[in-house]
Amino acid sequence: LQRGVRLKNPDGSLTRPTAQCEARLAKVASSNSWLEITLFEGRNHQVKRMFEAVGHFVVRLIRIEYGGVELDPLPEGAWRILTAAELKKLKSWAC
User: Fold this and answer.
1) pTM, two decimal places
2) Those residues with Cβ within 8 angstroms of residue 9's Cβ, 6 or more apart along the chain or in another chain
3) Are 25 and 33 contacting, i.e. CB atoms less than 8 angstroms apart?
4) Is the distance from CB of 83 to CB of 91 less than 8 angstroms?
5) CA-based diameter of the chain, in Å?
6) Is 93 left (phi over 0), alpha (psi -120 to 50) or beta?
7) Which of 9, 38, 66, 84 meets the CB 3.0–4.6 Å disulfide criterion with 22?
8) What gap in Å lies between CA 1 and CA 48, rounded to an integer?
């Protein structure tokens, strides 16, 4: 995962490799493991497709940050006004 993987397209062909990502084993339980993944690109269902490419599947996926803006403790479906610093971070990603 950290070196990038080629994802499968709907027609069975493979994509160009994904960008390198950061991956860290956060917790190991008897029935599953929790990993923290930091992506530097965003393709359609990328995390699930990356794990499928290496022979694993995703049971639960939780986004904790987007473009430098932390989402915790915002409940699912809720929204808030961004701070000036958060807006600056997002604008720097867009340029």
Assistant:
1) 0.79
2) 15
3) yes
4) no
5) 44
6) alpha
7) 38
8) 12
Closest CA to 69 of 51, 90, 53, 40: 90
CA distance 24 to 26: 6
DSSP helix/strand/coil, 47: helix
pLDDT for the residue numbered 7: 96
Of 85, 54, 45, 55, which is closest to residue 69 (Cα–Cα)? 85
Identify the CA nearest to 62 among candidates 71, 53, 50, 54.
71
Spatial contact of 94 and 86, defined as CB atoms under 8 Å apart: no
Rounded CA gap, 46 and 56, in Å? 13
CA 72 to chain centre: 15
Tens digit of each residue's pLDDT (9 = 90 or more) over 20-67: 999 999 999 999 999 999 998 989 999 999 999 999 999 999 988 888
